[in-house]
User: What shape does this take?
Amino acid sequence: VSRAEPLDLLDEAHSGSRVALARLLTIVESGGTRHRELVAAAYAVPPPYVLGLTGPPGAGKSTLVDGLIATGLEVGDRGGPLPEIAVVAIDPSSPFTGGAILGDRVRMQSHATDERVYIRSMATRGHLGGLSLAVPDATRVLGRVGFALVVVETVGVGQMEVDIASAADSTVVVLNPGWGDSMQANKAGLLEVADVFVVNKADRPLVRETRRDLEQMLDLGESRPWRPPIIETIATSATGVAALWAAVNDHRSHLEESGELATRRRRRTREGLIGVLAAESRARSRALAHGERFEAAVDAIAEGTIDPYRAADELLD
Ligand SMILES: Nc1nc2c(ncn2[C@@H]2O[C@H](COP(=O)(O)OP(=O)(O)OP(=O)(O)O)[C@@H](O)[C@H]2O)c(=O)[nH]1
Ligand SMILES: [Mg+2]
Assistant: This one.
């Protein structure tokens, strides 16, 4: 039984066991007491660098990640080639499939058997805060196990996507030529999270128009010290992937040199703590919604002797 304990699993995963690592990430998804023990260890070491890729379904995110992995392993960053890279793929738009569908979505086949690469799709199976807390926890576990770079791919276009994207240090927004018409509603959210824009499928028409649209959006937005570059790629032939990798590294250098990395991470830590507080309060409330005190309060509200707000205050005391 002791083999299944989080701290033992961490040791095994740190020594290279992918089986142990998979079990750790299942613990992250599931929540519970073993999750508590795990995060206590995971948050005690500095976080890995987290690179987020986000954008509409089918934009070519996984194909790009595949190319970025190859570049990362070969070229790496200022410290040289990366010894290993982890990828977490998420589909927040399908909570009911429990992630089963993700097998088809993860198109990073060329690295499926490379032991320097760990690819995991994630769903939430019980973690109180859902994916927006489970994903940061997972990146911290991967960091604790020794990965210096974690790539997070999120599918779907909504608030959840933006939440998860904001859990990354550098966020790449992947679009296709002619994207603008279908995504009117979410433009502002994407603009807010993008550190680098990619126009993938640049082998198709309307590339120049799409670039011009993005430039215009950036011109209209408030001016910031970092202007997101727009990189054109054809992921299927790895065209532009080296330029994308370089842009990501430039952004990272900018964050580190300006002190913005620490600022961002602190903001993220605050948001994470608020998220945990909210999740814990919800759990506590659900626990309070049973038992005699609760039923007595319901009776009292029905009889008009107390209002629900004061009743809640009293229950929480
Ligand atoms: N023509 C063309 N097709 C591409 C390009 N990049 C990717 N594709 C194709 O587009 C399809 C979707 O690619 P994926 O990499 O799975 O896209 P994704 O964004 O990860 O998709 P989801 O995870 O399902 O949202 C695949 O059939 C790819 O071969 C490209 O640059 N040009
Ligand atoms: Mg994908």
